[in-house]
Fold Helix-turn-helix domain-containing protein.
Amino acid sequence: MCHVRHLDLIGTTEAAKILHQTRTTIARRVASGDLHPVGSIGPRKIHVFDRAEIERIANEETPTPEGMRAR
């Protein structure tokens, strides 16, 4: 049996909102290899990202208040 995972694709603007960063920062992170788009679309090669992956990264990058443990 083959399991197919359906991706919820988002653009750079939505990824920037989720990560609380600018679109320019997202582009820099892609260029540096820190973020990995799942593809690009159109003649302008607009990056698309997997929403679940971006949300996972956002959760990992969210600072934990001192003295509190991450659960």
